[in-house]
Amino acid sequence: MTSSDPKLRRRRVDPLETGSSSLTHIVEEKKKEVWRAGSSGSSPISHCTALAIVTVLGCITTFYKIWHPAEVVFDEVHFGKFAGFYLKRTYFFDVHPPLAKMMLAGAGYLLGYDGHFDFGNIGDNYIENNVPYIGLRMLPATMNVLCVMLIYSIMRQSGYAVLTCSLSAAMYLLDNSAVAQNRLIMLDSMLVFYMLSTVYCYIRFRKLRYQEFTPAWWFWLIATGVAMAMTVSVKLVGLFVVTTIGICVLVDLWELMDIKRGLTMKQFMRHFNARAFALIIIPIFVYLFWFYIHFIILDQSGPGDTFMSSSFQETLKNSAIKMKSLDIHYGDEILIHHPGTEVYLHSHDLKYPLRYDDGRISSQGQQVTGVKEADDNCYWRIKPTKEISKDKRVPVRHNDIIQLEHVSTETNLLTHDVASPLLATNEEVTTVEQDKQYNETLFKVVLDDHNNGNIWSTHMKLVKLMHVDTKVAIWTRDKTLPEWGLGQQDVNGNKNTQDRSNFWMATEIKGLNATEINMNKKKEIKKIPFIMKFFELQGRMLRHNSGLTKPHPYQSTPITWPFLIRGISYWSKNDTREQIYMTGNVFGWWLSIGGVAIYAGIMLADILARRRGIEPIDEPLRHRFISSAGLFLILWLTHYLPFFAMGRSLFLHHYLPAATCNYLLLGAVFQFMFIDGIDSPVSRLEGTSNTKYRKFHPLMMVASPSKYSYLAASLILLGQLGMFLFLSPLTYGTPGMTISQVLQHKILNTWDLQFD
Amino acid sequence: MDTLKRRHITHSFNNIDGPSYERIPLQDDEDLYTEKIKAQRNYRFHHKYISWTIKNRHIVIPVILTLLSFWTRFRDIARSGNVIWDEAHFGKFGSFYLKNEFYFDVHPPLGKMLVGLSGWLSGYDGSFGFESGKEYPESINYSGMRLFNAAWGALIIPMTFGTARQLGMSLIASTLAATMVLCDTAYLCISRFILLDSMLLFFTCSSLYCLSGLCKVRHSPFSKHWWFWLTMTGISLGCVSSVKWVGLFAVALVGFSTVEELWDLFGDIKLPKLVYFGHWIARIMGLIAIPISIYMASFVAHFKVLSKSGPGDDQMNSLFQARLEGNKLAESPLEIAYGSTVTIKNHALGGGLLHSHVQKYPEGSKQQQITCYHHKDSNNEWFFSKPYPQNQMIPSLDKEEEENERKNENEESDKEKVKQNQQQMNNSIDEPVEYIGDGQEFRLIHVATKRKLHSHTIPAPVTVEQFEVSGYGGENATDEKDNWRIEIVDDISDKHAPKDRVRSLSTRFRIRHSVLGCLLAAHNTQLPQWGFKQIEIVCDRDAKENNANTWWNIEEHRNEKLPSAPKDARRSRFLKDFMYINAAMWRLNNALIPDPDKDDRLTSTPTQWPLVSVGLRMCGWGDDNVKYFLMGNPMVWWSSFISLWVFIITAGVYNVQRRRQFCELSQSQWDKFISVGKTLFLGWFLHYIPFFIMGRVMYLHHYFPALYFSILMVPFLLDHFTTHSTPKRRKIVFTIAFTLVILTFIYFSPIAFGMTGPADSYRGRQWFKSWKLTDEVI
């Protein structure tokens, strides 16, 4: 039951046992030895050289023919357009947070682009439309090169040999999916960049764990928080990296809490608070900051208006709704429109039939229906139920009780406990002559957004008409009445009063021209506190995102991703038979998923063996394999598994961050399998404020790559390079291919390439 | 060590006092001690029966509880003479066993066979239809059937007591556990009708009981007791999963505990490898082999008893149907020829019949829909015609004939019409019979609408990467894309049968499109409402030849020119049928999804359950009805839900304390706390959380197995927190608990015993609006 406990303790105790008074001396000796052995491949110089090489190579693969194709490719349709909206400062709506799109817009601004092009369709020509697309693409492409550098640095900081670091970075820069995706005007390259930055900062922070609360420690801790927030500000999937860091911090805190660690509760709380501040508070502010900028830039009405509430729209300049809106007063004759089904509330001089087809009986009252086009029969006059002054025009307010008179037949709207024609559970809506059944003709005006002004107005305020007597709401739905109702839409009293579709909107007041009246008014712009705007937008983004379930021909299921069962056709051109087909490097992806399996196998074997009292792996190696490679594994898992639970339509490119993490893990597994030993320790011990920690130093060790390991690495790289070159026509979209070539490139027959 | 020492004291103490019947756990010590002194003191003054009772209270208390539970469960059981709630289903299913007719249902057969048994015992012959809400005819001894079910429900209470004892709870805590189960209105209510829930609960409880027994003897493995408990656990698990599939959650619970134990043993280096291996074998035998055999045995019995054709035939594979007594399939002609009218069944587990109807696809080609449908109707019938461009043999009625028929005004069924068509056609074409064999081309014409089975490069409606299959053309329009080719896979009953003929029922074949080369396939994707939630048919481009989704067989077959099949029994094999029926159950279970268009007041969501936010009206709510309202005792439900959180928080606090080394608990106390608490929490978790990811329609009673585990958590925690308090305080705490539970039970008991008179007179008991105990006043 408590078996895990002694085990934990044992691991902690191990380094302690070796502790002695002359320890620091030994450490120094060893360290010198390590530096001397630097020629074996871990000196700063060789690291720098290797980093420089992969960077140059990364530039080559990323920027190769970046001007091709000079046409809109796949999701550039969206993100190019969104960048344009920032430049035009018109409001738009998107499910992703604003940072990456603002970066693209920033690039556009520097290039002098004014956002005139609408990126309407895949295949629209950039040159004809005078778009500086190469400059725009430069930004994500540069980020991709930075990703290569980050991968190298992460591996280096984690203490892997030059060979391993180069391998991971090279695998990434030769990955077709990374190249194809990350040089186009899309968000993924920023996402991966910030995600890797977060990991890098956290590793730097973690390495300083024995120099707690030093400036460097604080710097990297806060940098982790900021990078994390930037990731989330690009796409909400950035929350996956937050999860990873969260798990790591919890494990870290749990270890700090151990009494043997020698921290008092006060010290522990200091650690806790520092992390809470840097990893929760700061990220929230950074995240909010980008939205703040977002709202400042987008101050004009635009295509995103309709996604937002009317009070939000009022905060935008030139808002159409603002121009159209008029306050409604008693005595006005108005049109009432149902936004969900786009019909007007209507009545005409026809009665409900006495007996319906199913034998039920009606009240034989006048029909009330919904019609698509407004006519004279659609005007309703608002009559007060309380004394109002005759001289002034009194506005209708939230919670007022009113009567609605159908103007052309001079009857009052009514609903009562009679089954409606099509839905027996709902109430029939009809009209009666004046002064009859007074109690059943009373309706309460319930405004949706009554906190921001409680006067009912056209276009601005959604309204629910609640029947006072029977507590139903006037409702309509997408069902038409039979012949006797002229095929118009069914209107009834809905007992489920909480339903959103109960809301209607007044669209016009008879005889009043809104635009004219509002022209004279000053164009005042309302202000809403930023935080309210933020919550509204965030809520709508989440709702919209989960609503993206419409099937797409290229969507796929998460289980198929690591095996590359299917790619996505991004772009194709018939004349030249060129195409971009987004797919990963089959060699690299299969190898890295194999790496996951190997990791799991080794860990399982180790756990089983240790349970039987055998320790097959040296402690420092094992420690590295658990803490460093384990981090990479968690990264991969958190970037992959959540997709299985998502309901929205998913695409292969959602796997890209996970595939990137998988290359990190592949490197770690490679080091474990092919290189003897590791470079250890990676954490600095000198300058520790708390002398107790000095006892906790890990064992010293030096990695020594053999010829064999170089051979293995070159074989892997050769495989990756070969596959990369083979797939490059699909990645770069050039050159065009004949049918036989296309067929040849169908590595799996489930790939649906164009022109086969 | 601490435990041992004190245990010895207890023993010696007991020896003075007389024989002890049960080992007394720690918590009782002080309490008992004072009580015993008192008992001794009172010995002189009180009657000797009282002292005997006090001395033997370990026996007396459970006996009293059992009697009470039988009394509550049996009391006035026949008050409502109507078919209540799901009696409509399970009573009916029980009847099928008595009539030996094959039916099909989502639940495994054991529970329903027991219902059948109850009917047999009370002399019922299976003739009643169990229509919902209908009054039982006098000839039916429905109260006998209900008593049988209630007995299972009553037996839960002593079992709860035993379980609590075996988990190491004190006497008073165990009594509280049993009392809470006894006084839960929901358990009471559900046990009193002809339903499966009382059996399900009984076997769930017995699983935990046996598991706790097994844990208690874990330190003497391979002893007689150990084998006993291991076998009993296996049997309970087998039974619980054979009643309803939710029983599998109990299997998971035992599985977790077993894996943990094996892991502990694995770390014991001194244990000989052979013994460790033995542990594995014993558990595989006891906890895997036994439950599986019981589960399969229940199906063997199911198939044996239900030997006649009945309403469930359609759901089974064709060969199975042919085997049933009274089913016509076995008599149909054996080999398929051009001119045959057939129904074609998908061979995948739970596959349906190739179907079409007049409705069109709303998107894509907008031609007629082709689907896969699981029930028999005339729209499943297809006619084998020569391929394009040979002349068509479309079954069509002459107009005169049609008029004649109308004149006859005989209500002729569609089938008969089709038969006439068939004759007509056969008469008109005087060709020799031409059998269809491997590789031959044909067209399939939908008999009812004359459309031809057709495919084209338009994407399918749901699985967009595949081709759509549609019904094409009217009477005359046809093209080469109507042609299909048959590819015989094999013959089930005769592996070496030549491939030159297609035999109905037994030949498995693929249908390949002649032009596109894709295979006709039915994957398990449902069409939206416009396709009536039937299964989508596509033409599979990937052409996976070994996928059973692309395999078909002929089910019904009619051809006037051909003789009936010889009476060689087409043997069907149990294992195949077993797999098949389970797949069909799985499919139907998944298809029980809530209908968004229907406002169903009876269903509820998992979040509403633990806090008693909803109740369920089990019958009509008229003033004359005896009304049963399925709702938990709020005190029991609330306290049990809170106790789960208390456990989690306490465990967390203890963990931190242990990390900081200032925990008051000794190692043994901690071990006990965590092992019992973990089992109970895991039990609740496994029986509750999966409902959140289930798509099917859910009712309140789905929470009952989970509730049982959380109920036990309450006395366990009370016990744990009062270990160190004075006997007086302990007594006060438990008295309050008992009082609350019993009083609320008495207050709410009418909802379970049956409310008479208008529901409005019980308005006071509707503490929350959401309970809907009474109708809303408008």
From TrEMBL, chain A:
SMART domains: MIR. InterPro entries: ArnT-like_N, MIR_dom_sf, MIR_motif, PMT-like, PMT_4TMC. Pathway: Protein modification; protein glycosylation. The keyword Repeat applies. The keyword Endoplasmic reticulum applies. It is a multi-pass membrane protein. Its EC number is 2.4.1.109. Residues 325-385, 452-509 form the MIR domain. GO terms for molecular function: dolichyl-phosphate-mannose-protein mannosyltransferase activity. GO terms for cellular component: endoplasmic reticulum membrane. Keywords: Endoplasmic reticulum, Glycosyltransferase, Membrane, Repeat, Transferase, Transmembrane, Transmembrane helix. It catalyses: a di-trans,poly-cis-dolichyl beta-D-mannosyl phosphate + L-threonyl-[protein] = 3-O-(alpha-D-mannosyl)-L-threonyl-[protein] + a di-trans,poly-cis-dolichyl phosphate + H(+); a di-trans,poly-cis-dolichyl beta-D-mannosyl phosphate + L-seryl-[protein] = 3-O-(alpha-D-mannosyl)-L-seryl-[protein] + a di-trans,poly-cis-dolichyl phosphate + H(+). Belongs to the glycosyltransferase 39 family. This is Dolichyl-phosphate-mannose--protein mannosyltransferase.
Automatic annotation (TrEMBL), chain B:
It is an enzyme of class 2 (transferase). It is found in: Endoplasmic reticulum membrane. Pfam families: MIR, PMT, PMT_4TMC. GO terms for cellular component: endoplasmic reticulum membrane. Keywords: Endoplasmic reticulum, Glycosyltransferase, Membrane, Repeat, Transferase, Transmembrane, Transmembrane helix. Residues 395-424 are annotated as: Disordered. It catalyses: a di-trans,poly-cis-dolichyl beta-D-mannosyl phosphate + L-threonyl-[protein] = 3-O-(alpha-D-mannosyl)-L-threonyl-[protein] + a di-trans,poly-cis-dolichyl phosphate + H(+); a di-trans,poly-cis-dolichyl beta-D-mannosyl phosphate + L-seryl-[protein] = 3-O-(alpha-D-mannosyl)-L-seryl-[protein] + a di-trans,poly-cis-dolichyl phosphate + H(+). Residues 404-419 have a biased composition (Basic and acidic residues). It is a multi-pass membrane protein. Its main location: endoplasmic reticulum. Belongs to the glycosyltransferase 39 family. This is Dolichyl-phosphate-mannose--protein mannosyltransferase. The lineage of its organism: Eukaryota, Fungi, Fungi incertae sedis, Mucoromycota, Mucoromycotina.
